[in-house]
Amino acid sequence: MKNAKLADIRPVLLVNRQKSNMRGGESLVLENIELEKAQDIILDHARVMPAGSLPLLQALGRIVAEDIAAEHDMPPCAQAAMDGYAVAEGGDGVYKVIERLRPGEISAVSLSANQAVGVVTGGPLPGGVVAVLPEEAVELKGDFITYRKSIEPGSNIKPPGENFLKGDLLVRKGTCLSAGIASVLASYGIDEVIVYRKPRVAILSLGADIVSHREIPMTGQMRDSNGVLLAGLVMQEQGEVIDVRVAGVDNITQIGELFEKLLERADILITIGGAAYGVCDQAFPLIEQSGADILFWGIQIKPGSHSGAAAIGEKLVISLPGSPLACAVSFNLLAVPVLRAMQGLAPHQVRLSAICTNAFGKKGGPRRFVLANAACAHAGWNVKILPGQKSSMTRAFLSDWNAIIDLPAGHPPVEKGDAVSVILLKPAYF
Fold first, then answer.
1. What dihedral angle (degrees, nearest 10) is formed by the CA atoms of 133, 139, 144, 148?
2. Nearest C-alpha neighbor of 112 from the set 138, 82, 86, 84
3. Contact between residue 195 and residue 59 where contact means Cβ atoms under 8 Å apart
4. Which parts of the sequence belong to the MoaB/Mog domain (predicted)?
5. Which H or E element spans position 133?
6. What is the DSSP secondary structure assignment for residue 173, as one 8-state letter?
7. Buried-most residue among 110, 161, 323, 326 (CB within 10 A)?
């Protein structure tokens, strides 16, 4: 079949599939299955990425691959909580200032009754201190201060371990390294963090009529916008996009060579378009020709029913439909859980109930997913269905589509004020 065109090879592949995937009258390829079953199958083949050390700033946003505990108390010793005077017991409100400490200085003395030491915020305190008096609350005359209020022992002192005790868990394995966490690690002098490697993702748009978004399409051709869409979504999930390519030909041999080259470098290869069973659809015959183990093909949802997955060794191929809205929906339902699992995270996005603020007239049919914008208001979560819900439309992409509404099979029209099930799309760990 060297240099064969898809129209020539397609009937042969279909016949071979019918022969090779039947045992005792049952197909080995799971077709048109429920979404949750498809997710379970593909997650069973998702391997956690190896971990490696990165400098602290480069590790921001990555998933920590080991528990990190406090190596010592924080603060390590008693410190002043403000500028003022550290005083010992006694004194009847009048104390002699025997020393004035500047930032970074440590006192060599231990206070006795009636004595005080000038201190700065965060500075280590000398021994014998009972409290720190605010600088603005005392009267200073020569080497003596007067404080006319009663002293509460321990006031304005940060005791050792007030923030963290030695052995406290600072970061749990599987946590996203945020700016706040990084600052805590920096306070312990940690400049290298073990994080999971980003999954490497290659994206291949199929279809002889598809050209790069950088090209001017001829009559009958269209630019590839889905590749850019998925690249952005992959990066949002902390995946590493290693290549975005357009097949742009009908020669299945040429496409197969590109497919293999991309898969050599990637942990996941996502194909876009041609995932149905039409005579010109390329995804299934391409994957079958590669010798991959097809995990399932077709799921019971709309949009995105023409989606599938395959495994080649430890690598995954996820085939998504070419219609933009269907591509976006099926990516979030199939690829996002895999990307999360490969980085040591719980795979599934946050689900919640929200009140719909507008109506959606369609009803019935298979389980439907609708792009939406969710927000948390004073009374709880609400969600707005975005315009342009046809599979071929991209109007919803211009809005902040941070959620998908999950409507069950055979659902009635959605009315304003209805409670609906919502999947939050943007990473919950950011």
1. -60
2. 86
3. yes
4. 202-341
5. strand 131-134
6. T
7. 326
**373 membership: H or E segment, kind and range:** strand 367-377
Sign of the Cα pseudo-torsion (413, 415, 418, 420, in order): positive
pTM: 0.85
Pairwise CA distance, residues 312 & 385, whole Å: 38
With a CB cutoff of 8 Å and minimum separation 6, the contacts of 63 are 174, 175, 176, 177, 195, 196, 238, 343, 344, 345, 429
Q: Measuring CA to CA, which residue among 133, 82, 79, 134 is closest to residue 107?
A: 79
Shortest CA distance to 12 belongs to which of 252, 227, 221? Answer: 252
Stretch (H or E) spanning 255: helix 252-265
Q: Which two tokens stand for residue 12?
A: 């042969």
* Tens digit of each residue's pLDDT (9 = 90 or more) over 339-380: 999 999 999 999 999 999 999 999 999 999 999 999 998 989
Alpha-carbon gap, residue 411 to 96, rounded angstroms: 81
Token pair in block for residue 1: 């079949």
Q: How far apart are CA 276 and CA 396, in angstroms?
A: 24
Do 160 and 73 touch, CB atoms closer than 8 A?
Answer: yes
Query: Pairing mode, if any, of strands 308-312 and 169-171?
Result: unpaired
Amino acid at 265: R
DSSP string, 180-219: HHHHHHHHTT--EEEEEPPPEEEEEE--TTEE-TTSPPPT
Give one DSSP letter per residue of 327-350, joined into a string. HHHHIIIIIHHHHHHTTTS-SSPP
Give the pLDDT confidence of 71-122 residue by residue, as tens digits: 999 999 999 999 999 999 876 889 999 999 999 999 999 999 999 999 999 9
Taking the C-alpha atoms of residue 339 and residue 155, their distance in angstroms, rounded to an integer, is 50
